[in-house]
Amino acid sequence: MAKRDYYETLGVAKGASEAEIKKGYRTKAKELHPDRNTDNPNAEAQFKEANEAYDVLKNPEKKAAYDRYGHAAFEGGMGGGGQRGGGGQGDFASAFSDVFDDLFGDMMGGRGGGGGRARAQRGNDLRYNLRINLEDAFAGMQKTVNVPTAVSCDGCNGTGAEGGSEPVTCPTCAGMGKVRAQQGFFTVERTCPTCSGMGQTIKNPCDKCHGQGRVEKEKSLSVNIPAGVETGTRIRLAGEGEAGMRGGPTGDLYIFIEVNDHKLFERENTNLFCRVPVSITSAALGGEIEVPTIDGGRSRVKIPEGSQSGRQMRLRGKGMPALRGGGQGDMFIELAVETPVNLTSRQKEILKEFDEIAAENNPEGSSFFKSVKSFWDGMKG
């Protein structure tokens, strides 16, 4: 069976440029790759055919011979493409590796075409956990924090090289930051062990940073904590993270807020809750109490006659401010009616006398015991 024309196989015209040939091969490789065509039994053969064509047309000498003599140029062991003349897996692996970045580059870090790895690397982002009091979360504050981080080395201006000298291209990976090893049918890429993926080496590393371009240092920063923050609020300080490797851009610093529990107030979003104990007499007769507010002030609250434990009263606008504006929450006073302890004999006598004459004044108790009596009567029936 006659072999297909290599240009036709790649879907390009005769006389196509190197870039057009490579583009045609990329398209065919993605289209015909066996992993993407599990239901097509001919995909693997077509894929190998495309690789054989590209192996010839990407090489200027082989391409010139093919343009002049066609497939006959590689017959009889003349070192042609694909599976002839002992080329076999090695030629295929070489051809496939040229398009490896285009097929899988995004998954391996998105280096971009042709130029190898970026020489500088962005610094890491940092996280700092900051604990504050509820009062500070209410009012907002300016806080100075000390963050251990990596900063650009002033001895080499972040280059990692001594005396202003420039890094040189890594001889092991030729600046790619990776090396390739053939394992059977596939070509495997690994980070270059010589330059650790940087693509460059430094002949005279800086004594201060040992070629890293950065040094460890504690940095003091002033952080603006806006009013209304709560646990989990994240504040981003752009460019305050770790310095990049060898002059790379600096990462960011993220301040995570954690608000301490308060002795008097419980918070729920922008609302505050305060549990206030009151005496039996105040709850029964009514009265007025003074309660604290989160801003350090005081508010007077009237207690209605006959108030029960758990009753809530609202103080509008006395809660927490909403983060980035949007009004202010409310404060809820919850009454906790106290039972007196350590009574004297006289106090006990007074309470017993009061209990005898005030049984009908306990509506909830009377209703409950009527329900209990009805339940028992029903069980007997």
- Give the biggest sheet: 4 strands, mixed
Number of domains: 5
**What string, H for helix and E for strand, traces the elements in order?**
HHHHHHEHEEEEEEEEEEHEEEEHH
Number of strands: 15
- Beta-strand portion reads 15-25%
- The percent range for helix content is 25-40%
Q: Can you give the mean pLDDT?
A: 80
Which regions have little confidence, pLDDT < 50, spanning 5+ residues?
77-95, 101-118
Total helical segments: 10
Zinc finger (CR-type): 140-218
Subunit structure: Homodimer.
Domain CR-type: 140-218
Domain J: 5-70
List keywords for this structure.
5 domains; unfolded protein binding; three-stranded mixed sheet; HSP40/DnaJ_pept-bd; alpha+beta; 24% strand; HSP40/DNAj peptide-binding domain; chaperone; cytoplasm; zinc; 381 residues; Helix Hairpins
Structural overview:
Zn(2+) 1 binds at residues 153, 156, 206, 209. CXXCXGXG motif repeats lie at residues 153-160, 170-177, 192-199, 206-213. Its main location: cytoplasm. With 381 residues, this protein is an alpha+beta fold. 27% of the residues lie in helices and 24% in strands. It has five domains: 6-108, DnaJ domain (Helix Hairpins, Orthogonal Bundle), CATH 1.10.287.110; 116-165 and 209-260, HSP40/DNAj peptide-binding domain (Sandwich), CATH 2.60.260.20; 168-201, no CATH class; 265-337, HSP40/DNAj peptide-binding domain (Sandwich); 345-380, no CATH class. It has a four-stranded mixed sheet. The protein has a three-stranded mixed sheet with strand order 1-9-8. Strands 2-7 form a two-stranded antiparallel ribbon. It starts with 5 loop residues before the first helix and ends with a helix.
